[in-house]
Each structure stands twice: as C-alpha cells, then as structure tokens.
Amino acid sequence: MVSNKMVEQKGNILMKRYEIGKLLGQGSFAKVYHGRNVKNSQSVAIKVIDKEKILKSELMDQIRREISVMNLVRHPCIVQLYEVMATKSKIYFVLEYVKGGELFNKIRRGRLKEEVARKYFQQLISAIDFCHSRGVYHRDLKPENLLLDENRNLKISDFGLSAFAECKRQDGLLHTTCGTPAYVAPEVINRKGYDGAKADVWACGVILYVLLAGYLPFQDKNVMNMYKKICRAELKWPSWFPSDVRKLLRRILDPNPTTRISVSEIMENPWFRVGLDSDLLNKTIPTEDVIPVHMDSTSDHFTKNTNEEKQAAENLTSLNAFDIISLSSGFDLSGMFEDDNSKEEPKFTSTNTVVTITKKLEDVAKSLQLKFLKKSGGLLKMEGSKPGRKGVMSINAEIFQITPNFHLVEFTKTNGDTLEYQKVKQEMRPALKDIVWAWQGELPQPLNEQL
Ligand code: ADE
Hints:
The protein has 451 residues and is an alpha+beta fold. The protein has 16 helices and 16 strands. It starts with a helix and ends in a 12-residue tail after the last strand. Adenine binds at residues 24-25, 32, 45, 79, 95-98, 147, 157. This is non-specific serine/threonine protein kinase.
C-alpha cells in the first residue's frame, strides 16, 4: 500500500520522483510545468489538474478519456503519456517533454516556407491517420496544440477533448461542439452531428493554410460573420500559394463533409508526397521501448516493479479501443446493442499495483466465502461454494493496465443466479474501497481514504 508520505508534494519534488520546475503553459483546469526525473535527470512535462475544479465541472470523464486516449496513441508525432499520479487534491500527468515550444510561436513571426510547412503537414497527417485508424479523433486541432521537439519535428499535444464514440448517436455521428471557432468545421458549427475524422481533416486544412499564409483563412471580428465565412468556405488565396496547394486546400476545406477529401486521399496527393519520409507513415513506438524507461529507472516503491509485479504485469491483457470506450460512463454504447447487459458489469479504476489489487480481491473473495482462483492471462475467478438454481455462481475479474500505476478492473458473471451475483456485487463495493479510485459512472472517492 502506498503511504501518505509517498504522494505528498514536498517543496517542489513530486512524490520523491520529479522535481517541478517552471510553468510552461496554463489552461482553465490545468497547468503544465517542466519536470525533472530525480533519478535520471530526464526532462518531462507535468500537467497538473486541480481535482476540485474538475469534480465540480463533470470533467472527470474527460480526464479518464485523456488517460485512455493517450495510452492508445503512441506515435513519434504524438506527445506521450508516461504516467498518472494523484494526490488528495490534484491529478498529475507525466508527459514527454517537448523542447521546441509551440509551432504557433513560429507563425507569430511570419509564414513558413512551403517545404517547412509541408514537412509539418506531413507529420500532422501521419499522426492523425494513426489516431483515426485506432478510432481516436482529436477534435481540437490548432497550432497551439502542436509542439516542436529539439529536431524541429512536430508533436501533437492535448488530447483532452478527443473522443471515441462518446457522443455517437444512432446515426454514427458525433454531437458535441468542441474546438476553437477558427479551426472548427462547418458541420460542427451547424450542430448537425459530425464525423470526427472529417472534422479533423478540416482543422488540418486550416492549419496548413495558416502555416503557409501566416494568418487564418476565415477571420472576422464578429464571430457570426466568421461562422458564415467558414460555412461558405469563403477562401481568398495569397498570391504566393502554389496552384497545387490551392487545389488540395479546396478539397480539404470543402464545407460538405461527405465530399471532403479523406486522410488516406490526402496521403496520395502529389503535393503532399513531395519529399515524404517513407518511414513516417509506418512509424509507431513499440511498447517495449517506452514503458521500461519509466519503470526500471526508478527505485521508490510507488512504481518500482518487483519480480512478482513484473510477472503480474506481463500477464495482463492490454486494453483494446472497445474496452476503453466502455471505461467511461460517457462512452455509453448500450443503445447500440439490443440485448445489452453491460451495465450489470461493474468496473473500477485503481492507482494500486496489480499485486495489491489481486491480494485485495483475494481477501475480499475469502471474506465473502468465495473460492478465489488465479488463471492465466491475468484473469481472476471467484466462485460460490454451493450451487444455486443455475449452478455455481462464478465471477471473472480482469485487470487491465492503462499506465504502469493505473489499472482497470472489470467483473463479469460467467455462471449462476443473477440475484446471488447482485448480492455479492453490493457487498464487494464497500469492501474494495481501499483500492478503488473510481467505479464506472461515479466520481472518484477521496484519495486520502486509499493512500
Ligand atoms: N506545453 C504543454 N505541453 C508540453 C509538453 N509536453 N512539453 C513542453 N511544453 C509543453
């Protein structure tokens, strides 16, 4: 169990692991600081979220989504999430530190040369293609969310507003209005429901225009007039825009999402392909290259993995997009299934290690007179002692790793009476409170109770 002392932020050292440095950026709920790993001096960015503010504003689901999304999208052009920590009042995201600052700062100094703008656009499209292939849409693409590393390569940050199918209705379209007006697609403005992929394509078009022109394509002091210009896709071309760029941008900034060019079509475009790094389109970061750096290079017991824990972690099943969609109550897919009983299946997240979670489940199972069995692949089984009307009640508990110290535990009834299962579920909830960060659909309980 992690002691209170481990998670306190002493001076400017966070959990004895990261020295917090200067402020890099600030939003309404979060501040981003430079951080340094005290063990190996590696620079990180630490995004600090004030829990009180988000608990009040129902943003908790968004935070959960951010954790899940960032873990799904490992790509050299996407800022990587290393780990998540929490104290009583704050959530800390430890992120890859991107040294070169915002791409936006470059444009402030003027427009970019065609080759430079194309390189960033190629990296942007490659990362977007990678996200879309995993069912993830950014939905808030703008130059402020595009950072540059020390080699002037682009990194997309801030998946805070990205979503899977959370707002998808029967028509399969998204229904929340997100994003900054200047980069928002006409169908998002019109609140007709939109395809997240096509809305991202639109934003990429606005970004390409800004990189090449040095100013926005649709601008007006009056927001309503700006919306009108966006919806009509009223474009004016600077004299220096080459004709092949104009042709491509016309296809991207098509107000009709159904005829708008797709990401794969952009990748076939002749202007896009000039000087394209062929590696770029197949680049992903192998998981084994990422995780050990942050597990092996640390020695305190908050993240240090014992052999037992390493073995347990290896046994874990990794989450697929579908599991992650169902992690958050915001991702309610029940309408998509006629015979849905997924609401019956409880899930919780935990900031404890696999070993601690397993031990607790074992203790609780025993206290409820259930047999406890460890199966392969990280699967745990709990079984009743006597057969009921429908045989012996059997529950599977599966632990999924989201980050090295953030796990999802999911229960499923595999046999037996529903009534008996309901009773066990009711008794299990309070018994597990020491290791639960949040039950699905509920706000996290105060962390001081668990740490
Ligand atoms: N500002 C916001 N996120 C950042 C990051 N990951 N690295 C550097 N600066 C940032």
